[in-house]
Each structure stands twice: as C-alpha cells, then as structure tokens.
TrEMBL record:
Belongs to the disproportionating enzyme family. Keywords: Carbohydrate metabolism, Glycosyltransferase, Transferase. This is 4-alpha-glucanotransferase. It catalyses: Transfers a segment of a (1->4)-alpha-D-glucan to a new position in an acceptor, which may be glucose or a (1->4)-alpha-D-glucan. It comes from Rheinheimera pacifica. It comes from the Bacteria. Residues 67-161 form the MalQ N-terminal beta-sandwich domain. Its EC number is 2.4.1.25. GO terms for molecular function: 4-alpha-glucanotransferase activity.
Amino acid sequence: MDATLQAELIAFCGIETEFNDAWGNATTVSEQHQLQLLAAQGFDIDDDETARLQLLERQLDFWQQPLQAVSVQRIDEPLQLLLQVTLEQANMELAFTLTTEDGAKQLFNLTPVEGELVQVVVLDEVEYHQYQHMLPQQLAAGYHQLSLNNTEFSQKLIITPGQCFVPQSFNSQKQWGIALQLYGLRSERNWGIGDFTDLSNTVNYLAGVGADFIGLNPIHALYPAMPESASPYSPSSRRWLNVSYIDVTAMPGFSLCARTQSLVTAPAFVQQLTLQRSKDFVDYSGVMQLKLPVMKSLYQWFVEQKGSSNKATSNAFKQFKTAGAASLQQLALYDALHAYLYQQDSMYWGWPNWPEEYRDPQSDAVQAFAVKHQAELDFYCYLQFIAQQQLAQAQQVAKDAGMLLGLYRDLAVGVSEASTEIWGNPDLYCRDASVGAPPDPLGPAGQNWGLPPMYPYQLYKQGYQPIIDLLRANMQHAGALRIDHVMALLRLWWVPKTAENAGGGAYVYYPIMDLLGILALESQRNQAVIIGEDLGTVPEGIRELLAAYNVYSYRVFFFETAADGGYISPIHYLVQAMATLTTHDLPTLIGFWHCEDLRLGKELGLYQDQAQLQGLYAQRHANKQRILDSLHGHQSLPGDYSRSAENLGMDQTLNYAMQRHLAATSSQLLCLQLEDALQMTQPVNIPGTSNEYPNWRRKLSEPIEQWSQNHDIRQLFTEISKQRKAAN
C-alpha cells in the first residue's frame, strides 16, 4: 500500500503505531499488523484506489454534516459550537433552536464565517471550513438538543459537571468492604448458585461488622438457553441482569401457587436440589434446569392473577417494560429465539450461527417469531423485572443497615460476539477484531478476550447513547461502580482475527474527554463513586487525568513495590484509590504463598518453558520474603513469628496479618476478598484459559450460615473496621 495513503488511513482510524509496553520499552507496531487492523476496519488493503474511495466516503460522512452528531462540554467552560460548511455556505445566516433537557427552547442565528476558522479541508474538489463560535447561553448539566432549523441536522449537546461523585463523608472517614463472586455464595437455602437473597444476608452480616460496601462480579445478562457460557466478562447484554441470580423462592406466588409447589416438592426435584447445593463448583446447566421450569410456572401464576391480588406488581411490571423500551424487548426476543433455535440444534450457539433469516432482528422471520411467541418474550421481560426488584432490595438492605455505599458493581469491558448487544446494533461493533491486551506481567504472551470492540466513529455517530445507557444501567441500585479496564476510555488493544497471536495488534484510540464527561454526568446523577481498574499498560498522564475527574485508582498490594523490590508501606498508598490485596484474576493469599498459581499454570501449559517457570518460582520466593520483611517492619506480625520465608507455610496468623496490614492503607477505599477470610486456596479465574480450568464456577468453601458464625472471621473484620476508622 502507498505509504502516504496508509498513514492517512492509520490516522483516520486512530491507530497507534508506537507505544511503550508494560516494561517501559518503546514498541513499534509492524506494517503487517497495521494493515491487518485497517482490513479489520473494512478497508481494502490490496487495492489503493478502492481504499482511497472508502476513506473519502467516510471523510465526507463527517464533513457534510454542518452540526457534529454530539458535543460534550464542561459546565465550567464557555459554551462552544462548531459548524462545518462548504466555502459557498460560509456567509449564509443559519437559524438554530436550542432545546434544553427540561423542554425550554431558545432560538438564535449565526453566520459561520463570523466565527473562528479552525480547519479547512478539500474533499472531492469541494472546500469545507470548520468554524468555532462562542455562545452566550448557559446550560445546566444534562442532555440538550441543538437543531439547525428547516433541516434534518441536529446535535446532542451534553453538558458535564466535570467530576464524578464523591460522598461528603469521604472527607472524614475511610471505607472498606468485601469483594465476592455472587454465584460462589453458598447457603443452605439457595439452589446451587448464590442469589440475591444470599447477597442480602451477606450484606446484613458485613454491615454488622462495620463494612461499607460489597463488591460484586459483573452481574450482566448471560445466556439462559446456554448456561455454561458463564463468564461474567463475556456477557450478552451489559444493560440487563443475569437471571440465574434470582431467588426463585422469593418470587411472587411461590408459596401460593399449587402448581409450583408440586414441582418443587417432587422427590426428583428435591434430590437434584440437594445435589446442586453439595457441589463445590456451580453447575450452571443443572441450576437452570431447576430454576427455569419453576420460573415459568410462577410467571404463569402472575399472568393468571392479573387484576386481582397482585395489582401493584402488575402495574410495576408495566412501568418496568415501558422504561426498558426497545432494549428490554430486544433482550427478551434474543433469549426466546436463542432458546427456540438451540433446542433444535446445539450448533446455533449464537446469532452469527443462526439461520440467515434470524441474523437481523428487523427481518420478517424474526418479527413473525416475536408475534407468535409474545408470551415467551413477556416471560423473559418478567425475569428481568424480578431480578431488578431483588437487586434493588439487596441495596435497600445495605442502606438500611447503615452501609455508606452498599453494592459496588462491576462493568465488563465488552460483550461476546454472540451477544444481543451486537445482534441489535451490528454497525457499532468491529466483528473482525477482538479486544485484548499486549504482553505484560499478567499475560506474557498477550491476551485476547474474544470481545468485538466498538468503532469509535460509530459510537460518536450514535451520540454516545450506547455508553450512556450502559453507565446508567450499571449505576442502578449501587453506591459505586468499578469500570473494568478503565483504559478503554482512552484506547483499546485491538487484535485482528487474522493476527497470529494476541501480541499482533495495536491500540485504537477513543474520545476520552467526551467519555469522561459522560461518566462524570451519570456518576453525579446516580450518586455513584467510580473506581477505574487501571492495571496493565497505562500511558503517562492518564492516571492524573482520571484523578482530576474523581475516578478512583485501583491499587493491588502485590504490584505496589518500590524501586528496590520491597513493598511500599500502606500509609504511602495513593489516597484517591481503592487498595486490595488480590483480585479475581490473581491467586488467593494462600494460593500465592504456596505457589498454587504457578503449579496450575505448569499443568495447564501456560509457560513457554521450564526456564521461565523457574524464574517465576525464584521471583515468588523473593516476593514472599519481601512481604514478610514488610509485615515485620510494620509490626503486623507477632515478634516471635518466623522472619524467614524459607519453608514457611501460610497459616491463619500470616493470612490475617496481611489483611490487617493493608487495612492501614491511606487509600480511601479498601477491598478484601471473602475467600481469603475463609482461607481458600483455589483461584476464581486463571487468565489465558477457557476450558482448561473451571473459571467462574468455584464456590466458597463454607455456607454463610457457617462462616458467619466463625469467631475468628468476625474478629478479623471488626479489627479491620477499627483500623479503617483509625486510618484517617
């Protein structure tokens, strides 16, 4: 390809050709990988003339719009308007209508040439000018509309407060909480998977020992027809909820419906229920085989009762469907159609593999299915309604119990290719590439997460509405939101499907200032604290920018080391951050200390050779000694406790000492893992694996009825609460 053309295409697509890797080394993206990324974005890399025409078409799509599709501006800065016109139109007076979010209208006229000339381009022999005008209007934070009168052109005008929400009490008190995988909660009452009632009960216990929040794994909608697709980070829809978390026994009519009671008291059902509760790993298919028939029975009961005793529930469901609008209906349609097709043939694992007539949600075949199976669609809407109600109840329990934040939700970085989000909005996603990460200490070979990325320009053309919807939905019933891989606001590592491995990609840039502005607006409106998971390869200056927007950093103890390799003191941790000992992608404390992750990695073939593995073992031994030195240096361990990591096993004293040690952190937020309090060994997830290890299935070792009565755990949590109060 012509070098000049290639450079234009690279710049237009926002592809970064040079970057610093996780070790600080300057890295150049090879020409082959650049071309593969251009091909993934739809450019014909084998025919320069065709590629030029494709570029021109996309450039004209932007420049022929006098108003930009969306503009995000800060409330503390003068209001600006960018106009794009041809040279001939520059002296024409244009009339505009500004409609504020509350419906008020303001009319005004502008002549483009009277503004500041910002840019000039010539495309297809036509000269286009871009002018900037300063407007005298003052607008409140929110979503407004600017229209060019007598045309179809309009702009979504978003005014942002410029900073995310921070509770006033952060000024006087430091907070702590527990992270858990909701599916992994054991109880004597659930149906083989943690549910929203287990969550409420856990909230009650933790509030009683002084915790301020509970951190959840992503609870996004997965695939009811295909329960084994269980990764919370590869969802079907990030706007809706995973219905497997519904407590069926808390659904309306459970004790009143004779049909339902006959189902759940049948000997075969009781036997299966006992079996599911006893399993150490969640059997998603087995759980849904228990839950779905009972859910359908209870939905039928609800339909039969309409207009009688549950009129309030019926009205609330109607309001829920109205508010959920097209997005809810699309999810319900997808789930119903997926179940219908998957029962016929297990090859129909997702819409890319469905018969052609079903791959477009607007097709005649899909619409005919929706009409014929309306009751089935309504059933899936009802499950979302129940899930939202039960989640809201858990948050209410947290607030009533005195938790400052309550639930702390997690927003995954993307959706799977088979998702309803991509089925319903295919123009937004690049299906010829996947999101991942370049090589770094967590993934030496790079990572490919199998999640198609959004096209930045398509996101802009859609007025950022998909992002607005995502943020708003995930801040519901939550006091805080963790954004997985927060660098996605700036850039994502795109791996073309043609690449030989995950390292064969490049970064593609996104409009970070616009996205941060929207994040701040939604955070303030929903009173949700924002934590950005900023691990991995982070460009210089980005953490400072996030901090300026009140996005809290994410600091993991194992990575917080000084230049000499020692672990930094907790009192030197960043204040505007959440500190944690470990995460769902890392081993538990015992797993780390006993090198269980390295042993598993060897078994699963994750390391290049024996030399690499031996190097990791040597590094781990050094790290363990440094940890022990740090704990003794801060008097976190008894004076007579061993000072040598050689042949020292992890016991409760060392485990709990590490948790109390980090409780002294200067960071505003502290998050600990429930698995570590229970002294568990096996990890939640092993990055870089799929079927090799039962990721996202491992349950807690004890039910809540047991561990909540454990004196040592209660004492640990009570001491941590005292330390957090003393840390101010």
